[in-house]
Design brief:
The protein is α+β, with helices and mostly antiparallel strands and 189 residues long. Helix content is 33%, strand content 17%. The chain has an 8-stranded mixed β-sheet with strand order 4-3-2-1-5-8-7-6, sandwiched between helices. It starts with 6 loop residues before the first strand and ends in a 6-residue tail after the last helix. This is Class II aldolase/adducin family protein.
């Protein structure tokens, strides 16, 4: 498990709370979390994550995002390094809103990366970041973490199919619509 790669945030009024830059997770506690205001000003005893612009851009573009999780999980990152998204080979892509797109490449920690991530997240709740990792959003931090884990799982399944030399059969629009309808009541009573 990486000691300090990736980051997460939660919306906080007109700004957000984000993990600090470069601090190993095992050494991070609640007092280390940094508040970033809507104007980008940060308060706390550490600098905000180098990806604070990504988080800020997602919150500005997506009122439905209450939490953002960015990971460098191994299999999703491997796909991102091939600049490949995750096609609808399994109905669980619907948790992300559909196929998981791979954003255009940009250097980490830049406004360009933030802009490309927001574009890849259009109508989606997760995206890969080219040569970088994955970003997932949710109505809660737990939901965003769960989605990031599911994207990693899907990436692993997809890579396993490709490694076996198999061409994944993609679900068509009707099959995805039927699965989407099944999800409508999923997990409720």
């Amino acid at each position: 498990m990486p000691s300090k790669s990736g980051n997460l945030s939660v919306r906080d009024g007109d700004g957000f709370l984000v993990t600090p830059a470069g601090l190993p997770y095992a050494q991070t506690d609640a007092a280390d979390i940094v508040r970033v205001a809507a104007d980008g000003g940060a308060t706390g005893r550490h600098r905000p994550s180098s990806e604070w612009q990504l988080h800020a851009a997602v919150y500005a573009a997506r009122p439905d995002a209450m939490a953002v999780v960015h990971t460098h999980s191994p299999r999703a990152t491997a796909l991102s390094c091939a600049r490949r998204g995750i096609p609808p080979f399994h109905y669980m892509v619907l948790l992300a809103g559909g196929d998981v797109r791979c954003a255009v490449h940009a250097t980490f920690g830049t406004a360009a990366l933030a802009e490309h991530a927001v574009a890849a997240l259009r109508d989606r709740r997760a995206a890969l970041l080219a040569n970088h990792g994955v970003v997932a959003i949710g109505a809660t931090l737990a939901a965003a973490v769960t989605l990031a884990i599911e994207v990693e799982n899907l990436a692993g399944q997809y890579l396993d199919l490709l490694a076996a030399g198999l061409d994944p059969v993609l679900l068509d629009d009707a099959e995805l619509a039927a699965a989407r309808a099944q999800f409508a009541g999923y997990g409720r009573g």
